[in-house]
Amino acid sequence: MASGSIPDPRMTPIHSLGALVIGAVAAMGNFAMFGYDTLRWTLVGRPPKSVVLPAMYQIGVRSITVVMVTGFFIGMVLAVQTYDQLHIMGLESRLGSVINATLLKELGPVLAATMLAGRVGSAMAAELGTMRVTEQIEALRALGAHPVQYLVVPRFMACVLLIPLLTAVADSLGIFGGWLFGTQVLGVNSFFYWRYSFEFITSFEVITGLMKSFFFGAAIALIACQRGFNCGSGAEGVGRAATESFVFCFVVILILDFFLGMFFNRLYYVLWPVQISLS
Amino acid sequence: MNYTIPHEPPIIELERVYRSFGTQDVLRDLTITVERGETLVLIGESGCGKSVTMKLMMALMGPSSGEVHWNGTNIKQLSENELQRQRLKYGYLFQGAALFDSMNVFDNVAFGVRQNTQLPENDIRTIVHQCLRDVGLPETVCPKKPAELSGGMKKRVGLARALALAPEVMFYDEPTTGLDPVMTDVINQLIIRTRDRNRVTSVVVTHEMSTVRKVADRVVMLYPLVRLGATEPQIIFTGTPEELYECDDPRVYQFVRGEAEERLQEMASA
């Protein structure tokens, strides 16, 4: 009797469901172990500058242009979309506060992270996937280097440190784009544009927006590297790893945004409780 | 020339090893020893688990069950750092050479030395140039990227990279696959020269019978589990190259002589 992988005819839908659940739990466990390994190596065995700096250049410097363009147009699109509504109510002078609050709290971090998940995350997944398929990851281990320390930690550090900076760049360009279009094309008064912006936006919004991008950066690095490390064989496997990386990053960014938004809102009310007077 | 030294524990031993990938069993109840100084050649059809066996020997992957011993020590007893340090005594020439695409030849060969020693750059340069000379490559190849090299050159750079750490054991994963007959012979000669010059124990995975004839002290032939009965052993031959050619097991006989009639009949009836 041969002992290969022969489909078991006794497999029922319950068996299939069980296998699916076990597979999902195993995948989550695999991801958790990967995250733990990454954090451990980040703390105890940081890689040399010669590895970290090229990763920072790839992830940070080479993403600046795309992030600037994205941020600039987001600001202008927000101006276009919100101006008419505000104009009907006679509140067009509040355009700056709407654009800047939206950008700093939500759209800036989320869209910058989404853009970087596509540009940086997919590239990392494809690069590491190719290294896995061509046995370069095993070669690293054979030559006394720990692949997580050597390949993942530099990318993780670069994403965690630089994606908040890139988000700040996207926010700044978005603010500029919104102001430019709002004041120069739509004719909103520049003085009131900034006055209401400063009135409604506190440093808390700015900081929480950037803190979100810190978590988004960590998620992008971990998901992309884990997909690359576990990619299937051949060109198809590498392609699938890159696609899965973007899809998972995008979904996780939105889920994280929701929970972080709730957390920071609660934190705001804890730090600055609203005094409600019934008298 | 055989350098086998008796009365020492095997330098590597796989003991009753099993290995599966998902539902696919690849290795079953496999016991293989590698004696110090010998050149062991693993042969067998594609997919029979030769490369997996070699990666288990070097602890690049773990067995599903069973034990791996290095110099008589079960590697499960070694810490991660100890395992990493011990592994440096083993060099590995990967099937596709596995050169790092982002680095040039010099940095590829220097990688292991930089990673594991504090040697000054001048000494590293000397080691790299010596290793490249040992595999017959000139220093002018140093600035080239792997994509600019031919298949044979890639294999030789991969060998130079493995030799840079002066390993006690060299693993060669299909070192001559995809090379022309002349380059195949060059690689075979390099395996022999490496063994003789550095007294290196060698484990070679190959399909090439010319490599078997030239380099092997002992040959182990594996058979794919999908073609075996549940109780049949996976190792279907162990012996010298001469014994391999005299073996009357039809599975061994057909593989050694490259006869496909029986397999074609099986395929036609499937």
Notes on the protein architecture:
The complex is a heterodimer of chains A (279) and B (270). Chain A has helices at residues 13-44, 49-59, 64-88, 95-133, 136-142, 147-185, 190-200, 203-229, 234-271. With 279 residues, chain A is an all-alpha fold. Chain A has one domain (46-262). With 270 residues, chain B is an alpha/beta fold. Chain B folds into two domains: 1-89 and 171-270, P-loop containing nucleotide triphosphate hydrolases (Rossmann fold, 3-Layer(aba) Sandwich), CATH 3.40.50; 98-166, no CATH class. Chain B has helices at residues 50-57, 80-87, 105-116, 121-134, 151-163, 181-198, 209-215, 241-246, 250-257, 261-269, and strands at 12-21, 24-34, 39-44, 65-70, 73-74, 90-93, 169-173, 201-205, 218-222, 235-239. In chain B, the strands form two sheets. In chain B, strands 6-7-8-3-9-10 form a six-stranded mixed sheet. In chain B, strands 2-1-4-5 form a four-stranded antiparallel sheet, with helices on one face. In chain B, α3 (105-116) runs parallel beside α5. Chain B starts with 11 loop residues before the first strand and ends with a helix. The chains are: A mainly alpha (279), B alpha/beta (270). The A-B interface holds A 1-5, 130-131, 134-136, 138-139, 141-146 and B 22-25, 28, 55, 58, 60, 84-85, 87-88, 90-92, 94-96, 98-101, 111-112, 115-116, 161-162, 165, 225-230.
